[in-house]
Design brief:
- The chain has one domain: FAD/NAD(P)-binding domain.
- The relative contact order is 0.20.
- The strands form three sheets. Strands 1, 2, 8, 9, 10, 11, 17 and 18 form an eight-stranded mixed beta sheet that branches.
- The chain contains 13 helices and 18 strands.
- The longest helix has 23 residues.
- Strand 13 and strand 14 form a beta hairpin.
- The structure holds flavin-adenine dinucleotide (FAD).
- Flavin-adenine dinucleotide (FAD) binds next to helix 2, helix 3, strand 12, strand 16 and helix 11.
């Protein structure tokens, strides 16, 4: 059984995003200070920030700009992780955990700040992001989360049932935790714009250029692509769920999980005035996450992870997620979905993104667990600092050694989606 993600062209974003900047595949030999593998938000942000520091960079991407999670995600800019809060991060990583929590809490503002500073055209809407409570018992957890995030200076507001209902246009939830600096964008548009801005600052971005080997020769890192070769002092691996066997052991450190995204037909204005009327994005407190926002053309963007994605996925999604939308937002009813697409999330058992020093001058960021879009932008800036000599003690990234995510990775990771059956049981309990 081999699961495949959809082509990027299946995503609604492929029809609504601004065109990609012109790029070409790498042919011949070049030399730069830093080589970056992966043209998603993490790699491109690192490239942009390195160029702003006067460092020469080349980004090598196996497919197109945004080919991975960055171009096909839901588009939500979220200033939290899904399961860990500041206290968890401090308990796990000490001072580095506190710095990381602040980076996470500030990532949406940093992300929209870049949109504004560079005039990016990507349907950016910074009207906030909410985690609504799907059971009354989850309000206690949200209260604790609110205390922790506001405790480190992040703007967050606990909403009661009526306040949440007003922002959501839904009576289905028991309240929520609202982060006013969150929001949403056209993710492929953002990633392409990030590439455009980086290229304008003289970053070299090569597409259709998979790095097939890397090794050290005469003090330099050498990266080989089918038609080219890059020599660099330092390397950043920004490959997240799409990590292949390029660096021994890195692929085994994450479990790829297929996630589906869906877009409805554009909804009439009268519906959009009732549902998510201020334009917020929301993803609730369930592990079987319910998540929603409007895109720039008035489509609802939602989706799901299926426990058995290899069985009639699209038909089941139309039915299941159609019913879900009708249940949460009766004003819409059961919608027709014009687009269904998929992409890989990089899951790790401890639910915290992983940062590694792999060798002298080689660093990696993987394992965002479906929350690395705005965060990836902020992480890219930190990776850039790491590559220009900032010591770990001043970085907001908790570095750790690489370890295998699950035993017998090759055999067990294709069944990761079955874990949904386990998590759904907790969604129905107090
Ligand atoms: C369906 C879906 C929905 C999501 N929704 C959200 C959301 O709403 N909000 C949120 O915060 N996060 C979300 N995420 C997660 C988010 O998209 C990712 O965490 C983020 O995009 C990671 O960015 P990245 O740049 O690190 O990796 P990616 O964007 O995945 O880029 C990695 C790139 O590396 C390339 N690559 C890999 N190996 C090589 C090689 N050997 N040579 C050259 N190139 C290589 C790949 O082709 C790929 O383009 C979602 C993810 C998916 C899949």
């Amino acid at each position: 059984m081999r699961l495949r993600q959809s082509p990027l062209s299946a995503a609604i974003w492929a029809t609504t995003a601004i065109d990609a900047p012109e790029t070409r595949r790498l042919e011949g030999s070049i030399a730069v200070d830093v080589a970056i593998v992966g043209a998603g938000v993490t790699g491109l942000s690192a490239a942009l920030h390195l160029r702003e520091a006067g460092v020469t960079v080349a980004v090598l991407e196996a497919g197109a700009v945004g080919e991975g999670g960055s171009g096909r995600n839901n588009g939500m800019a979220i200033p939290t992780l899904s399961k860990l809060d500041p206290n968890d991060l401090v308990a796990r990583y000490g001072n580095a955990g506190e710095r990381f929590a602040k980076l996470i809490g500030g990532c949406s503002e940093q992300f929209f700040g870049a949109v504004r500073a560079h005039g990016m055209s990507c349907d950016a809407v910074q009207t906030g992001w909410m985690a609504p409570a799907h059971r009354a018992s989850r309000m206690e957890m949200l209260e604790s989360r609110a205390r922790q995030w506001t405790g480190i200076g992040v703007e967050a507001e606990l909403l009661d049932r009526d306040q949440a209902a007003k922002l959501l246009g839904s009576e289905w939830y028991h309240g929520g935790l609202f982060f006013p600096k969150g929001g949403h964008v056209n993710p492929l548009g953002f990633t392409r714009e990030l590439a455009r801005v980086a290229i304008a600052k003289d970053a070299a971005v090569y597409t259709e250029s998979p790095v097939t080997r890397m090794f050290k020769s005469e003090g330099k890192w050498v990266l080989r692509t089918p038609a080219g070769r890059v020599e660099a002092d330092r390397v950043i691996l920004a490959t997240n769920a799409y990590t292949d066997k390029l660096w021994p052991g890195l692929k085994r450190s994450v479990v790829p999980l297929l996630n589906f995204q869906m877009a409805t037909q554009p909804q009439p204005e009268r519906v959009r005035k009732m549902v998510l009327p201020t334009g917020i994005a929301a993803s609730d407190t369930q592990s079987d996450l319910h998540f929603f926002h409007w895109d720039g053309e008035g489509r609802m963007i939602t989706g799901a992870t299926l426990a058995l994605p290899w069985i009639a996925a699209h038909a089941r999604l139309r039915d299941k997620i159609g019913d879900r939308v009708a249940k949460v937002f009766p004003a819409i009813g059961k919608p027709w979905f014009t687009h269904i697409w998929s992409g890989w999330l990089a899951m790790v058992p401890d639910f915290s993104p992983h940062f590694h020093h792999l060798d002298d001058g080689v660093i990696a960021a993987v394992g965002y667990c479906g929350r690395g879009f705005a965060l990836g932008f902020a992480v890219g800036a930190e990776l850039a600092k790491a590559s220009t000599g900032t010591p770990d003690s001043e970085l907001a990234l908790p570095f750790s050694p690489v370890k295998a995510a699950v035993p017998l990775h090759e055999i067990s990771s294709p069944f990761a989606s079955l874990a949904m059956l386990h998590y759904r049981r907790f969604d129905t309990r107090d």
